[in-house]
C-alpha cells in the first residue's frame, strides 16, 4: 500500500472537523494548558510559507501537551481591522467588510490544509460587533476610572468626585494625572458641569488630550510610530508631519512601574525584557525651575543628574514645547519657525535614532538658579516633548549628545570631574571627584558647593539642597508615553461616545455594541472630518437610547457621535481573554472560565511587537485585573519569538539587448542583466523553461543557452516579497508533498527563534522520511507488516533514545534537532527489520505532534478507535539506554591502529590484557618492549613501546 498523502490528509481533516476533535471545554479533572499565537491580519495575499512557522511550532507543543494529559486550549482568530482593507475600499468602493470576509475565507482554507489543532468554535474577529462590544466596554471602564499610585490600582471616578467635594485637589498628589491642578472643595462645588468634566478628564485612564501625533494628510489619519518610515507612511509612501491634535489617549504611563515590576514574574527572553525596560525607561531625578531673563516666564526641567548644574552652558527645548513660542525673540522668529517646519516631518523614533546635530537659538536666556549665570536657550529635535518636561539643561562635558551640540554650535564645555579630558568627547561622570562646582572665583546660592565630593555624595547633596531651598523636587520619571487611541479612519471600532456641550459622554453600557455605520465614501469629508463624518445616521438619541439620523441633532436630546475610530491595537489587547469564553453575552469572560484558563501559558509571535502590542496587552490586562475581570495581572506567562523565514530568490540572466537567457555557469561569457524569476517554476535551481515562456508575455519567444541540457538559475537570500517573485505558497507545497512534509520541513530549517532562508531544495528529504516511516508498516510488497513480536534489545534501544531526545527537544522548542532524530531512528528500525507493535505504536505517538495526518492514519490502522491526539506520550526507560559494549581505539605510541569492542563495565586491567593479547596487536608488538599501557575507559587505549 503506497503512502497516498493527499487521500490521508483530506480524510483526517474532514474527520477531525466532523468529530470536533479539537473542541475543548473546561475540565476541572485536568490541568489546563493555554497555547496562543498572535492572531493574523487577513491580508489579500493570503499566507506564504513564512506565516505558518510560529503556528506549526505552537501546534506541535499544543499536541504534545494534550498527549501529556493536559486540557489544551489552542484557539485562532483574526485581527480583522486594518488600513489595507480601507485603502482598497477607497480605491475600488468595495466595503472593507466584504474584502475582509473574502480574505478570512482564504486564510481559513489555507490554515485547514496544514492540519492545525485549533478550536475553531472559539474563533474571534475584531470587526465582529459581538467581539468589539467588549472592546468598547473596556474603553468605557477606563473612562470611568482613575489610577491611584498609592494603592497601585484603578479606582472608580465616582470615588474621586466624592473626594473633590470634601477635599478639593488636596487628594490628588498620588494620582496619575496630565497636569497638577489646584482647587478647593468650595471651588469644585461652584464649577459648572462642563468645568467639572474638564477637571475629571485630567485624571481619567481614557481621556481626551492635546498631543503631538504623526499626521498623514493624504491618508487623512494619525499613524503610529511603526507605521512611519523615513518621514513617509509605510503604506503608500505619503508625507507625514508632526501635528498637535485633540485625541483619545489611554493613560498607560500610570501603570509604568507595574509594567516594569511584572517583567520579573514572566518567562520571556532577557533581550525582550530589556527592550521593554528601556521602552518604559524608569529614571529617578530632580525637577528644577529656571527663570527667564527679562521675563516673568519660569519653566521646569527634569534631570537625573542635578549635581551637574554647574556645568550647564545652554538649555534645549523640544520643538513641540509651548515654551518655544513664549521665549523666541522677534529677531529669531523666522529662523525658529523654519526649523519647526522642518522638524514636523520627522517622527520621534527617527529623531531618537538620528545622531545628526540640528538646532536653532531662541534669542532668550535662562537664569541658573544656583549661580545666577545667563544660559542661552536653544531648540533642537534631540529633545522630546513627552519625556520629562520637554526642556533640558545641557551639560556638554558629560553627555554625548549635548557635547556634539556644543561642538557644532561652538558653545562652552565645562568639565566637572577632576582629570576629565573633554578635548575629543564627553566624559562619563558616573564616578570621580567633583570640581568647578562652583568654579574658582564664583559664588553659589547660600554658599553651596560640591567641590571635593565624590559623584555619589554630590548627587545626594544636590537633591537635598534643591528640596530644602524650594528650587524643585525629587521625582521618578518614565519614558513610557500614554497611548494615542484615536484614528481618523473608517475601518475600526467605533467609540461609544457622544458629545454634549463639547464634552464626551458614554453611550449606556446596556446599549453596546455601538455598531459601525455604513458610509458612501471612505475618505475624510471635504471639511477635513474623519470618514465617519460621511455617515448620515450617526447621532445619539438620549431618550430612545439608539443611533438616529444626523438631521435630528438638536444638542438637547440628540447629540453627535465621535467620528474617530479606535486603533489596531484596541482589538488585540484582550483577545486572549475572549478566547476563554467567546459565546458569553454578559461579560468579556466569565469568572469560571477566567479562573480555569487564567492566562496564556505559551504565546508565540514576532519580536517586532515588543514595544507595541505586548506593552498594550500587559497594560490592558493589569487594568482588567484591577477590576477583578482577569485573575492574573500578566497575560502571557511564557513568550517565544519565532524568527522569520526569508525568501530564497532565483535569477535568470538575459543577454543585454536580446531575449536570450544564459545559464548561471555560462553567464560570465556574456554581458547579462540578472532578472528575478518566479521561484515556483524553479526546482533545485533548475528552470522549467516552458513554464518560464508562459509566465509573462514578453518571454514567450525567449531562447536559452543551456549547460548540460539544463538552465541553472542563480540565487540569493532576500526578504520574501511579491516584488522579488520569491513568495512560496504553502498550498503548492501541500499539493506536491503534503501538509505533514511542510510541517516537518519548516521545523527542520533551523531553531524556531532564528531567521532562516526558505530553500525548496531540501524538502524532498522530509518527504522521503515520511515515506520510509510508512514503509515500516507497509513494506514494499504493500502488505501490513506489524506483528505482536517481542521487541529486540536493539529495537528498544532505538525507541527509548528517540523518546528521550524528542521529549527533551520539545520542551525547549528544539524541533530542528528532533526531526533528524526521527530520521535516524526510522533508519535503524528499518535496518533491524522491526515489526513489533510495542515499538512502532510508540513511534507513531511520538510523531503525532509533528506529522498528525500520517500518525492518525497509522494509529487507526494499528487498531485504535480514539484519536492519536489522545495517545499517551511515551516515557523513556534509562535501562534501555545503557550501552552493553564500548568500542575503543587501540593506539601504539599515539597512532591509532585498530579498534576493539569491550564489555561496557570492563575494568582497566581487563581492557589492557585484552588489548595486548589481541591478534591485531601482535604485529605491532613483535620485537618491541611494552613501556606502559594507558587506558582511558570509554575513549582510548595507548600502548607505549620501544
Shape: globular
Distance between the termini: 64 Å
Give the low-pLDDT segments.
none
Helix content: 25-40%
Strand tally is 36
Discrete helix count = 29
Largest sheet: 7 strands, mixed
Question: How would you portray this structure in words?
Answer:
This protein is α+β, with helices and mostly antiparallel strands and 946 residues long. 33% of the residues lie in helices and 19% in strands. The protein contains 29 helices and 36 strands. The strands form 10 sheets. Strands 10, 11, 12, 13, 14, 15 and 16 form a 7-stranded mixed beta sheet that branches. Strands 25, 26, 27, 30, 31 and 32 form a 6-stranded mixed beta sheet that branches. Helix 1 crosses helix 27 and helix 21 packs across helix 22. The longest helix is centred in the last third of the chain and has 19 residues. The model has no long low-confidence stretch (mean pLDDT 94).
Topology:
Blueprint: H1 5-18, E1 32-37, H2 52-67, E2 71-73, H3 83-92, H4 96-113, H5 129-143, E3 145-148, E4 153-156, H6 157-167, H7 185-190, H8 193-201, E5 206-216, E6 221-223, E7 228-229, E8 232-233, E9 241-250, H9 256-262, H10 270-280, E10 282-292, E11 298-303, E12 314-317, H11 323-327, H12 333-343, H13 348-353, E13 360-367, E14 374-379, E15 391-394, H14 400-409, H15 455-468, E16 472-478, E17 483-484, E18 497-500, E19 503-506, E20 539-541, E21 546-548, E22 558-560, H16 568-572, H17 575-580, H18 591-597, E23 602-605, H19 613-627, E24 639-641, E25 645-655, E26 660-662, E27 672-677, E28 682-683, E29 686-687, H20 689-695, E30 703-705, E31 714-718, H21 730-737, H22 739-748, E32 756-757, H23 763-777, H24 793-811, H25 815-831, H26 837-847, H27 852-861, E33 885-892, E34 895-903, H28 908-917, H29 919-925, E35 930-936, E36 940-945
Parallel strand pairs: 1-2, 1-23, 12-14, 23-24, 25-32, 26-30, 33-36
Antiparallel strand pairs: 3-4, 5-6, 5-9, 7-8, 9-17, 10-11, 10-13, 10-16, 12-15, 13-14, 18-19, 20-21, 20-22, 25-26, 25-27, 25-31, 28-29, 33-34, 35-36
Helix pairs in contact: 1-27, 3-4, 21-22, 22-23, 23-25, 24-25, 24-26, 26-27
